[in-house]
Hints:
Strand order of the largest sheet: 2-1-3-5-4
Number of strands: 5
Number of domains: 1
Distance between the termini: 32 Å
CATH class: Alpha Beta
Strand content: 15-25%
CATH architecture: 3-Layer(aba) Sandwich
Structural class: alpha/beta
Number of helices: 6
Amino acid sequence: MKIALGSDHAGFELKEKIKKFLAEAGHEPLDLGCFSPESVDYPVYGVKVAKSVLSGEAERGILVCGTGLGMSMVANRFSGIRAALCHEPFSARMSRLHNDANILALGGRIIGDVLAFEIVKVFLETPFEGGRHARRVKQIDSLTKEA
Length: 147
């Protein structure tokens, strides 16, 4: 699976570890920055990943900043993006099963790399359950069209 990755300076180290983890698991990471721990503005990279997922360039995205909050807020501004901020595997699983989340947001200053790898693995392996949840996802997506 092709996965778009983006981070700010606070998430840079974890993003780099996730990129290696993804490649070793047979995925194709698409690193959209940032490319060093120098201070940057997180919205720039959140936008790049959201647009990559929306265009179909990547199947899913992963965003990392200090808390994951800023990145999730940026990504969720885009119609068709359902970014989930997860700090443990259960939320990652449910974000996929019930919400068809297409971007995972993580806090590089909140979780360690071993936990992050487990969250990423669950996020990528869990399918969307569909059914009654598809109706609800359509309702969510229609909200951004009305706004």
